[in-house]
Amino acid sequence: MKFSITFLLLLITTCVFAQNGTVSGFVYDKDLRDEPLPFANVIIKGLSGGTTTDINGAYTIDVPSGNYEIIFSFIGYDSKSVLFSISDNEKKTISQSIGSGSVTMEDVVIKATTSREKETALLLDQKKAVEIKQSIGAQEMSRKGISTVESGLTKITGISKVESRGLFVRGLEERYNNLLINDLQAPSNSPFKKIIPLDLFPTDIVGVLNVYKTFNPNISGDFAGATINIETAQPRTSITKLSTGFGYTTGNNNEDFLISEDANTTQGFLGFLGKDRKLPSAFGNVPSGVKLSTVQYEESAKQNSWNTTKTTSPINSSLSFLHAEKFSLNNERSLNYIFSFNGDNKYQIRDGIVRTFNQGQGNYDNNLNVTNYNYTTSFSGLVGLRYKSKRFGMALNSFLLRSTSSMIEDQLGYTNSLSTNPNILIRGNQFEESKYWNNQILANYDITEDGKHSVKGGFSYVKTAFGQPDRKFITGEKINDTDIKTTYGGNNLIRQFLDVSGDRYFSGMFEYNLKLNENNKLKKISIGYNGINNEEISSYRFVFGKPIIATSFIVNINEINSNIAADVNSGLLKFTEESTGDYKSKLHQTVNAGYANVFFNFTDKWEINAGARIESSIREIKYRDIGDSFTDKYRKLTKEKLDILPSLNVKYLLNEKNNIRFASSKTITKPISIEVLPIQYVNPDGTVELGNPNIENSDNLNFDLKYELFPNSKEMIALGVFGKQITNPIERVFIPTASSGGQITTYQNSKQATLFGAELEILLQLNKISSLLNNFSWGFNTSLMKTNVNVDLIKNPLENNSKRDLQGASSWLVNSDLKYDFQFNEDMKNTISVVYGISGKRIYAVGTAGLDHIYEKPFSKLDFVWSSKLSKNIEAKFSIDNILNPYFKRELGNESKVNITETDLVLKQYKKGTGFSLNIGYTF
Known about the structure:
Blueprint: H1 2-18, E1 20-29, E2 35-36, E3 41-44, E4 51-52, E5 58-64, E6 66-73, E7 80-86, E8 91-93, E9 96-98, H2 106-114, H3 119-128, E10 133-137, H4 138-143, H5 149-153, E11 159-162, E12 166-169, E13 177-181, E14 184-185, E15 206-212, E16 226-232, E17 239-249, E18 256-260, H6 266-269, H7 294-300, E19 308-312, E20 316-329, E21 333-357, E22 364-388, E23 392-414, E24 424-446, E25 453-478, E26 483-487, E27 494-518, E28 521-547, E29 552-556, H8 561-570, E30 573-577, E31 584-602, E32 606-623, E33 635-655, E34 658-669, H9 673-676, E35 680-682, E36 688-690, E37 698-709, E38 716-727, E39 730-735, E40 744-749, E41 752-765, E42 776-790, E43 803-804, E44 812-823, E45 829-839, E46 842-845, E47 854-856, E48 861-869, E49 874-881, E50 887-892, E51 906-911, E52 915-923
Parallel strand pairs: 1-8, 1-9, 13-16, 36-40
Antiparallel strand pairs: 1-2, 1-5, 3-4, 3-6, 6-7, 10-15, 11-12, 13-14, 15-16, 17-20, 17-52, 18-19, 20-21, 21-22, 21-51, 22-23, 23-24, 24-25, 25-26, 25-27, 26-29, 27-28, 28-30, 28-31, 31-32, 32-33, 33-34, 34-37, 35-36, 37-38, 38-41, 39-40, 41-42, 42-43, 42-44, 44-45, 45-48, 46-47, 47-50, 48-49, ...
């Protein structure tokens, strides 16, 4: 009897459960091109419980047979509901795309706007990505007081900023990085940089910064350190904001300051000096040894002076404006636009030393005390328009970056090993201007209503211009604070005109995606194309002031313009062009690439992203040698290569809080323009930077293994190891001149480099330690790396050893920040952050001819930021930058093979100063 009752109960239970059906599917983020949306809410109206989507946007609910309404929701997004019927044992698939729509309540809209840019959302994005990816969004940059993209990226594991040389990733120089803007390849605005100096990008125009440390076939194969993708801001609400800021840096502001006379004007304050300093039209488009007549010189010198004004440097200032509007249309359509501009100016003083050694010898070639006065301006503007419907989206973006630098540099000491006269003054008067105009059109379309088949594409046209017009040098023996004894001729009264124009840069991409959903397992196949076409034309011309009779005279160096004009007028001085045959070169690069990529998951644990890229590249350089005639045909050097670049990214989900990742790929590294252009860039002290058009691309094999723990939505602990093998690494080296005087920096391929290292990243809420630390959070990341380069001493006979460290690589770095959140009342919310970063020494230039390497020494940086929302409309940010104010230093190593006769190995040294700034913003 007992057995019968038990059997009957089991039978009834089985029958009851057998009457249930199963509803499953995916929830997609409509605002992110129907990417899977984790942690969305899914409920069945009238039934208790419900569920949330997993990391892949998938859900499953058991439902009794009947008629129901299923509701999908996510914070800040419009809810969607679907009516359905289900019968016994039926399995029904219902997938839904949701996003921000026509909601107009301000508080809800704000949540929708920030949810995809805040730290928790980006941490979630990192967690669900298959590739090794890190991001920093608008919210985190704001609370850390970050005002530029460059500063923001230094908060990511393994990234450090090196003074004047951009970002280093995992200790690798800037040449190993690449830049995308809204998924489209972007050029640099300077031949001296691989990517745009990212301190020109204000964070106001940025939504999210994505950093990919592993390769995917849909991005350029020019990758070894990281690919950085800047997503420009996309407004989801109406906003108008005006901000202004002021800054003071010790040793830089409220100090004696030298500035070019033509820059000490309203026009100069705005940085509009390029037109007045351009090459005089009398010299023509092709050099021909023209000597300027008196009239021609007077005409070209009207707004272009040799004089320098001594003034006092005021405080730095900035102004920014942002306006965005969103319109919700019928049929789930929307239209928004954004307009933003940012401008700032800064006064910088660098007071220190610059030295060079004679190659193969142990004495100084140059030994100079240097004071550099630099007034800089920058302007950025963004105009964006975006239209979106249920299945179609289009965006138009146009942004302009413009930066200028007006610099006076005094170098006092000796050059050419002439230590018997250590009182030679070399004054450089330089104006530099870069312009960058990027225009983009982006579109995406769901071919089928369910998003199973979709395409996306984009095209950009970029125009760049870089110039150093009328870069002037004056040389003489210093007599007192203002006077020098000088003689026309030689290295005196030199004028350089450098122009690098990129009027034709095109970038395009197109991708087809197929999404498959089988048994709650998502599969995605992507096939696409991207490519670039770029041409840079460089012109580098020299004009010398030549005397009829070389006689010495004493003159006030700050007021020398009248003396020069009088001597030109009297016929004692002629300005003559003495450019050589190599004055002009052309660099043309074309890249066409096709790729295929497959994403799939099997079981509940494994996710794989695998694919390959076939990339065809052509680099063509047209140039003339120094002794060629100006009318000779260009010599042509062409390098063509076809690269097959596979990649594999694997993620294993130990559980909902733990991931293990593995990645491997093959990539290439291309040189920076200045490294490959046959230009001899001459500095006032006689040092030269020389391009090498025979440089080969590097081939890279990359491996990564990483473990991640996500205790909650705000915390993460990650430990990773990585390795790279680089064939033909590109490195900076010094080569000797035929005689003393004028160190030459150039670039070469070494044989092979290997590097391996480890990374640790921690994000923790400190309330785990004590309830007294409830509002504190701590972030920490560090990288350790070991490198080894095999040198071919037959190919590079000047090198000292067959093995050494990789040039530009740092063996360790540390970044950390401590955040404290508090509020005085409901409106006055505050965040205080203390941010610290330091990296180990690195080889700046490879030692040759018996001299050891030149090392950049560790530079530690400690910053303080207090961000406060004073009211509903007013916010303020106070920051202290570079609190420790250490020396920036380069020095010769102590393992030279020649006898060093000098007692001090420091080759460059200065301090930046500690900066204090206040920024106030008002939202209308």
